[in-house]
């Protein structure tokens, strides 16, 4: 069977001293470094999650503002189109008014010219008829 003698006890004591020294010199510092690394990684992951949430919020704000800008641009286009149409209607109305005025002036000028020609013809008819009469009769 197993023989317990002084060598075994010395081996156990040596093992315990070695374990204590390794724990003091190697295990605890390595565990501290690993814990610190885990803390930094966790803080990085939490920071990343916070940044992702903030990014999503900013993206929502961006999309909302972009939608507002598109709406404002559409409103500006509608207003410009409406203003253009009203200016077009106003210009057409002025042009029609000017055309009607010009037409009325031209008609009045033509009527005046016709009246003058008619008066001139009425003045010239007796002379022309006398001249024609003289040529025909003699």
Number of domain units: 1
Distance between the termini: 184 Å
Q: Identify low-pLDDT runs.
A: none
The major β-sheet equals:
none
Tally of alpha and pi helices: 1
Summed up, what is this model?
With 138 residues, this protein is mostly helical. It has one helix spanning 6-137. It has one domain.
Strand-helix topology:
Layout: H1 6-137
Characteristics:
138 residues, mainly alpha, 1 helix, 96% helix
Structure description:
This protein has 138 residues and is mainly α. The protein has one domain (1-121). Helix content is 96%, strand content 0%. It contains 1 helix and no strands. The longest helix has 132 residues, at 6-137.
């Amino acid at each position: 069977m197993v023989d317990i003698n002084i060598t075994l006890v010395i081996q156990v004591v040596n093992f315990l001293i070695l374990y204590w020294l390794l724990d003091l010199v190697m295990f605890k510092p390595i565990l501290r470094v690993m814990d610190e690394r885990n803390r930094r990684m966790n803080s990085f992951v939490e920071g990343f999650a916070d940044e992702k949430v903030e990014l999503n919020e900013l993206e929502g704000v961006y999309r909302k503002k972009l939608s507002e800008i598109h709406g404002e641009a559409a409103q500006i286009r509608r207003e410009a189109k409406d203003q253009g149409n009203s200016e077009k209607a106003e210009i057409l109305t002025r042009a029609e008014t000017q055309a009607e005025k010009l037409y009325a002036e031209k008609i009045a000028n033509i009527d005046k010219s016709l009246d003058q020609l008619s008066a001139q013809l009425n003045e010239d008819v007796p002379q022309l008829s006398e001249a024609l009469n003289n040529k025909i009769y003699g």
